[in-house]
């Protein structure tokens, strides 16, 4: 027998009471856990995906939408821009590197993005098998796409028009898989990459077989004498001055819009922050209620236990030990609540991720444990300690003789 | 071994107790009788260090019990005094044997003889039971076992026979006597139960004649 075992015995003597208290606390802590997990991974992922992209240029519209669609591939593009404008911009001396993107198609909900090999280099992408596209309609699958769709080298498929998964199929030319990327844990995992030319040709009326046999452009813009469009451009500044001059210069041109990922993302987090704060407040309220519940349960149980406490004193327990006995009960209760809460939080996130295979949260992982979760345990124990202080003090002051003579 | 001198105690101005001096050697027995309200339980509480007398001293072995305070008093009581209450008061979340082990824990004993004790008291088979499943007589024996778990020098029993029939009353008194002899402990039984009188020769009467 020891103090922990003694408190534990008293807890399991009332399974319903104990269980409910643990559950209520666990619920509050589970919400906090999920918030922490999502926030951390979201921020990590978002900064990672935007690394190396100083500026995104696209059609006029919402700058946040432009960033979300062109960097993270989760929103709809703002529209297309004229390639002549794009090429003019690439000659600007403030631009170090420029990567065109062409979007508009999907296969089974996975976006088909037309670009050049610089895009692969930007994310330092490696190949699980095969190699990058060389001809029109060659595609490279992101790791997750290949895994989820069960496709491999040499397989072909027909893309659908539009960005969502329920759009109608092109009945023209099939795509052929020439490579599968290795897993990176970034946005590439969920994309189907191809050349800009592929995107153009799949929307053209009629087939021009000479074009289909020609090599596609590996870097820069495709060569063409037609009027073509691209969706957006990822830019790198040549020097710090560019950060000041370039966005202003581009935005003053009527057809184009420039948006900075870092600026838009911090704006997004600010917007989300309000919602996060609200949920956090709710969780804190639940935790406070749980703490109160534990306080009330302990305090009520004292009434029926004064006798037991007095008996313990006659057996040699000091008043300090009775104090510890009650505090331990509160602390064990909240410790269990914290562990259960963290478990529920991870489980909840796992289910959430499983149900949203392609959405913004599909890239999150429930199997990540953060240092902050140790803080949750710490806070929970503090709640248990505080909630049990007054009952423990009452136990400390038990008058043995009076208690025992009262029948 | 136990000596009580010049004890005076009062709850308030209307209830004053004059307590006769007591001298008891190891292995000796004493019966304190008196009618209801005469202060028997009060005396027992003083002897057990649960109440402080206003005057006089209680000495057990070389220790003046009435001068100890706080955790020192608690530990001394747990080690040296076994108290059997009128009602068993077994801690209900614990099993029978855990009740004994708790008594051991609070004074840092191992409790090597716990099971022998339970055997002798005829409740070995119930050692893993919760108190709610025990009969009154069994519960009373558990409380005796628990009082003896640390081999006290002094055993105090407050009306241990009050709720028992003649036969069981005799058994319980006999048990207490046997165990006290075995551990060479002093035994004090407090009661208004006339049946106990026949078993113990040394008497003190509280509050005059009964
Ligand atoms: N905590 C207390 N405060 C004030 N008076 C008390 C207190 N406890 C007991 N008394 C009074 O002291 C007197 C003696 O009480 P005590 O419990 O010692 O009697 P007793 O001899 O054990 O009686 P019984 O045989 O009924 O158990 C009673 O009159 C009782 O009312
Ligand atoms: Mg009494």
TrEMBL record, chain A:
Sequence ranges assigned to domain MacB-like periplasmic core in this UniProt record: 18-203
Q: Which UniProt keywords apply?
A: Cell membrane, Membrane, Transmembrane, Transmembrane helix
Keyword set includes Transmembrane: yes
Q: Does the keyword Cell membrane apply?
A: yes
Task: Name the principal localization, coarsely classed.
Answer: membrane
Membrane-topology descriptor: Multi-pass membrane protein
* Occurrences of domain ABC3 transporter permease C-terminal (ranges): 282-397
Transmembrane stretches, start-end: 20-38, 278-302, 322-354, 374-396
Name of protein: ABC transport system permease protein
Q: Any idea where this protein resides?
A: Cell membrane
Automatic annotation (TrEMBL), chain B:
Q: Where is the ABC transporter domain?
A: 2-210
Q: Which PROSITE patterns match?
A: ABC_TRANSPORTER_2
Could you cite one Gene Ontology molecular function of this protein?
A: ATP binding
Q: Where does the record place a coiled coil?
A: none
Keyword Iron in annotation: no
Q: Which InterPro entries does the entry link to?
A: AAA+_ATPase, ABC_transporter-like_ATP-bd, ABC_transpr_LolD-like, P-loop_NTPase
**Keywords recorded for this protein, A-Z:** ATP-binding, Nucleotide-binding
The record's annotation in SUPFAM superfamilies points to: P-loop containing nucleoside triphosphate hydrolases (SSF52540)
| Name this polypeptide is given | ABC transporter ATP-binding protein
What organism is listed for this UniProt entry?
Belliella aquatica
């Amino acid at each position: 027998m020891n103090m922990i075992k003694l408190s534990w015995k008293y807890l399991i003597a009332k399974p319903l009471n104990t269980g409910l208290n643990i559950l209520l606390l666990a619920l509050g802590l589970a919400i906090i856990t999920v918030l922490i997990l999502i926030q951390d991974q979201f921020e990590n992922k978002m900064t990672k995906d935007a690394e190396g992209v100083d500026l995104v240029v696209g059609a006029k519209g919402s700058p946040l939408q432009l960033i979300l669609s062109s960097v993270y591939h989760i929103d709809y593009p703002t529209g297309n821009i004229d390639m002549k404008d794009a090429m003019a911009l690439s000659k600007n001396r403030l631009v170090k590197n420029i990567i065109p993107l062409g979007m508009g198609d999907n296969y089974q909900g996975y976006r088909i993005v037309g670009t050049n090999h610089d895009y692969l280099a930007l994310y330092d992408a490696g190949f699980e098998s095969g190699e990058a596209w060389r001809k029109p309609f060659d595609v490279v699958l992101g790791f997750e796409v290949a895994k989820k769709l069960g496709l491999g080298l040499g397989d072909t498929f027909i893309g659908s028009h539009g960005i969502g998964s329920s759009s109608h199929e092109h009945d023209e030319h099939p795509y052929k898989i020439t490579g599968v990327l290795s897993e990176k844990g970034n946005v590439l995992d969920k994309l189907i990459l191809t050349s800009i030319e592929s995107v153009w040709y799949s929307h053209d009326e009629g087939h021009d077989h000479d074009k289909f046999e020609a090599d596609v452009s590996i870097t820069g813009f495709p060569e063409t004498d037609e009027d073509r469009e691209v969706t957006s451009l990822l830019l790198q500044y040549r020097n710090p001055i560019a950060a000041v001059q370039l966005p202003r210069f581009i935005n003053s041109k009527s057809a184009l819009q420039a948006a900075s990922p870092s600026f838009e993302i911090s704006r997004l987090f600010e917007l989300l922050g309000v919602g996060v704060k609200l949920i956090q407040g709710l969780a804190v309220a639940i935790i406070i209620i749980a703490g109160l519940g534990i306080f009330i349960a302990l305090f009520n149980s004292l009434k029926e236990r004064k006798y037991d406490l007095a008996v313990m004193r006659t057996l040699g327990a000091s008043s300090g030990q009775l104090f510890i006995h009650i505090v331990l009960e509160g602390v064990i209760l909240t410790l269990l609540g914290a562990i259960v809460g963290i478990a529920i939080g991870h489980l909840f996130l796992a289910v959430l991720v499983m149900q949203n295979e392609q959405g913004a949260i599909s890239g999150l992982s429930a199997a990540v444990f953060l240092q902050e979760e140790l803080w949750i345990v710490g806070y929970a124990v503090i709640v248990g300690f505080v909630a049990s202080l007054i009952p423990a003090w009452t136990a400390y002051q038990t008058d043995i003789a009076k208690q025992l003579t009262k029948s | 071994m136990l000596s009580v001198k010049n004890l005076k105690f009062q709850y308030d101005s209307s209830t004053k107790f004059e307590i006769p001096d007591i001298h008891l050697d190891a292995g000796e027995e004493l019966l304190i009788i008196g009618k209801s309200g005469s202060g028997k339980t009060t005396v027992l509480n003083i002897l057990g260090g649960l109440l402080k007398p206003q005057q006089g001293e209680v000495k057990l072995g070389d220790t003046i019990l009435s001068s100890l305070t706080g955790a020192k008093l608690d530990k001394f009581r747990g080690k040296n005094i076994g108290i059997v209450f009128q009602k068993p008061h077994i801690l209900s979340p614990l099993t029978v044997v855990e009740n004994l082990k708790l008594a051991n824990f609070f004074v840092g004993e191992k409790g090597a003889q716990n099971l022998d004790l339970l055997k002798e008291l005829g409740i070995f088979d119930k050692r893993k039971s919760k108190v709610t499943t025990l009969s009154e007589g069994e519960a009373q024996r558990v409380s005796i076992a628990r009082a003896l778990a640390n081999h006290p020098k002094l055993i105090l029993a407050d009306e241990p026979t009050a709720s028992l029939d003649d036969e069981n009353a005799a058994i319980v008194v006999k048990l207490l006597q046997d165990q006290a002899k075995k551990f060479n402990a002093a035994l004090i039984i407090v009661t208004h139960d006339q049946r106990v009188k026949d078993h113990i020769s040394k008497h003190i009467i509280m509050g005059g004649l009964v």
